[in-house]
Amino acid sequence: MLPAAGNEVEIPTRDLRRSNLPSQYHVGHGHIVDAALNVSSQLDLVIADGGVSPILYKAKDGSEFFPYEGVYAFGEIKATYYKNEKPIHGFVETISTIQNGLHRARLPMTILRAP
Q1: Edge to edge, what strands does the sheet with 25-33 contain?
Q2: Statement: the pTM of the whole predicted model exceeds 0.85
Q3: Dist CA 18 CA 7 (whole Å)
Q4: Cα–Cα distance, 15 to 77 (Å, whole number)
Q5: Where in the chain are the domains?
Q6: Residue 112 CB-density burial (10 A; 0-12 exposed, 13-18 middle, 19+ buried)
Q7: C-alpha torsion sign, points 100, 106, 63, 57
Q8: From first to last of its 115 residues, what are the pLDDT tens digits of the chain?
Q9: Fewer beta carbons under 10 A from the terminal one: N or C of the chain?
Q10: d(CA 84, CA 108)
Q11: Helix-strand-coil percent breakdown of the chain, rounded to 5?
């Protein structure tokens, strides 16, 4: 199986993000999973907590399954942009599906306070 052409752009982009963030952040790609085991579509970039929230599973192709509570950001990486394919519209739909279809555990407001 040959890697997708998108990997030529996705891997260096993730490496760049990784090199610009403190080591406490984990940069990868894959799926977000909530406590009810609802799973997002595949995402090219996921930035998550690298210490408190471990990766649930790593597939042979490198895709990872991230607990939703540990995810800080996610995105899509495109090697080319064709307006007629409406990639921005598609990503907005992905965001909406994740926000409405997956559920995060509520955290206490005190979690953001300094000790």
Answers
A1: 57-58, 64-67, 25-33, 43-49, 71-75
A2: no
A3: 16
A4: 13
A5: 7-112
A6: exposed
A7: negative
A8: 444 566 888 999 999 999 999 989 999 999 999 999 999 999 999 999 988 788 999 999 999 999 999 999 999 998 888 889 999 999 999 999 999 999 987 766 665 555 5
A9: C
A10: 44
A11: 35, 25, 45
**DSSP secondary structure string, 49-68?**
ESSSS--SEE-TTS-EEEEG
Q: Which helix (H) or strand (E) is 72 found in, with range?
A: strand 71-75
How far is C-alpha 2 from the chain's CA centre?
Answer: 23
In angstroms, the CA 104 to CA 78 distance is: 28
Amino acid letter for position 2: L
As given in the structure block, the two tokens for residue 63 are 């895709």
Tokens of 49: 């907590």
H/E segment holding residue 101: helix 87-101
45, 14 Cβ separation under 8 angstroms: yes
